[in-house]
Amino acid sequence: MREVVVTGIGLVSSVGEGVEAHVAALQGGATPRTDLTSFAPYPVHPVTVPNYDTQIAKKSDQRQMEPWQKLGCYSAGLALDAAQAKEDAALKSAMHLVVAAGGGERDYAVDGQILTGLRSAANPGVYLNERLMSDLRPTLFLAQLSNLLAGNISIVHGVTGASRTFMGEESSGVDALRIAQARIASGQNDIFLVGGSYNAERPDALLIYEMGGFLWKKPFASVWDRPAQGGGMILGSGGCFLVLESREHADKRGVKPLAAIAGISSERSRRESGSVAKALREAATQLGAKPDVLLSGATGVKGITEEEQSALRDIAPNAKLHATADLVGHTVEAQAPTGVALAAALIAKGEAQEALVTSVGHWRGEGAIRLMKAS
Amino acid sequence: MALRDKKGRPLVAVTGMGVVTSIGQGKDDTWAALTAGKSGIHRITRFPTEGLRTTIAGTIDTVSVEPFCAPMLSERLAMLAAEEAVGQSGLKRGDFPGPLFIAVPPVEMEWPQRQALAEASGQNGDVTYADLLKAASTGKFKAWHDLFIFGTVADRVADSFGTKHSPISLSTACSSGATAIQLGVEAIRRGETKAALCIGTDGSVNPESLVRFSLLSALSTQNDVPEAASKPFSKNRDGFVMGEGGAALVLEDAEAAMARGAKILGYVLGCGEKGDGFHRTRSSPDGAPGIAAIRDALEDAGVSPDEIDYINAHGTSTPENDKMEAQSCTAVFGERMSQLPISSNKSMIGHTLTAAGSVEAVMSLLTIANGRIPPTINYTIPDPAIPLDVVPNVARDAKIDLVLSNSFGFGGQNTCLVLGAEPR
Predict the structure, then answer these.
(1) How far apart are CA A319 and CA A343, in angstroms?
(2) What confidence score (pLDDT) does residue A104 get?
(3) In whole angstroms, what separates CA A62 from the centre of its chain?
(4) Does domain A4-104+145-372 have CATH number 1.10.3980.10?
(5) Domains plus CATH for chain B?
(6) Could you read off the pLDDT of B1-58 as tens digits, one per residue?
(7) Rounded distance, CA A274 to CA A246, Å?
(8) Which residues of B are catalytic, by number?
(9) Do A204 and B190 touch (CB under 8 A)?
(10) CB A212 to CB B280 under 8 A?
């Protein structure tokens, strides 16, 4: 099997942009930025809006995208730059893409007007048809469609090997990395762009998680401290993309690997008391993990967060434990890539020899990714 | 017989297939209707259509779910197809020995749910999302979180069939079903598993999804004679007709399948793909990505263009797709293309979107097994720009060993499969 290395990171969040800013914030340990008012009582970690023009040159492209796609497209561009791949059209036309995505934004004003009108409509079905036909922007569909983040990356950045979009909340981020890693390791493909993005600053995203009772409704507290007060997630806006390639391919391009992806575990289980701790212990054993740093994707949701914390203490009692959500919030599909980005950066800086990234989904899915120094 | 392909990889056999469409429940019914030239397109009765430009679709109205919504119907169609496929394979339902790759429509909450939340909020003035959030916070709608997140259909199918590891839910637009098969093939070739359950499902004909496609001018508006609206490759084609469907394939390492005495229904010999960065909904004018995807599939299968006996077309009935697909095929197959049969199942089933690649892979394998090519129906006015043998209107008997199945989608997705009777 071929060694799979990380050669480029693109990261944008409430912290700002670039992996260095994120590592500095992680090590500084300051309280992360939250917006407590826009969606009160639900705090969110608002993105520090980047200058999109620097990565998405055409305004016409920007207009075709909703924020989640722009964040993804922007961070994908940063990753390509970091991997010294941006200017190599031939390389990008052979580069494959695996994107972890949910869906895009809605037109909130239109939704509200239709719901108001439906209440008194003589024929609600016909009213709905007429309003949708006249009020929906045709291009909004493409800005919502899950696979169109990949489509936009192909258009804007010319990454056109072929794209696959995975859905399924947190697990999709782990599985995107897993499939890319396996395809490189087996020799099927040489280089991938992998990642995801999330826009938390939208009421329909909050709505789906609030229906399930998963949202934190107080000012920021660490994910580890939330379960004692009922638990909950604070969603975060951001994007994270990684360039992964075989070690030989990176060497041939003269690009220095940041870290190697040594193994990925992605499982599902019927959740019950103890199942998350068991899944994480099994993953650590299967991966042979001996991390000196842990990048946890813990959500703050009651039950699973305490279980994960205690399991990680057992797995690596002396490892430094960071929660990605305490830095950027919970970015759902982008959470696992973000953890991997931070882990790779810490290893590249020589601050860790080996890292374990976890992704325990708020509702399902248990994943773990082991990173090491490149050989 | 060699149980590895020319590249030394494990051969991937199909040992179970299941399908449900608007023309039949189960692969036998669907195949019988498909080869009889029967259309499943009809007037939509599921919701009022007044005010819509398109009022027809290939909905599946015989399957009932509660609450009625796209994820519930998509889940049910996936379950029905998987029951048939896993049943045929003889593998154990509840303890399926491999992963699940499932193409699912990107779902979100629908209007009946939004309306219920608005009503529960007690808001009598202008409704906003703040009101919906207020209703959500009561905890009375907890089940809808699970229902409308993206991973749920896969999770329920994985739980029901006992597939292994994290199930992968995927979307590559209208090539999703083919991508699900490709992921299964790759996992078997890598030696990660001896079996994979690959499904495509789509039960998303509802007012908003229909309107969205309608606003992109993608749908046929020839509503007068519903069964005649989908007319791939015809001069008077004017868009696709939405359809619903589910299809499942059990893929196995051929060696493992033979060792357990399973009946092999055919082989997935090659998968090809190529991205297109030209435009969000249109393909590169030179057709290069589609051509590359076809060539990639042939190369992966280790077969030459001359060996392909039949093409199961993407054939959506949109002006753009059919023209580009014909051009791409002609570029690959050359002069032979005028005699090489190519037909579109979508002329009868409609475009089952996320499921199409899976449905058409099953139909391709049945074409091989039965030695009969399903027709392209509604072909009365040929398009002079597409001088192909589209197997017009009537099924044709022919010995078919190798099929190319094309799938193309929004977002620059091009995925092609080569299916065969025997290993190469």
Answers:
(1) 13
(2) 76
(3) 21
(4) no
(5) 12-107+150-420 (3.40.47.10), 112-146 (no CATH)
(6) 569 999 999 999 999 999 999 999 999 999 999 999 999 999 999 999 999 999 999 9
(7) 37
(8) 174, 314, 351
(9) no
(10) no
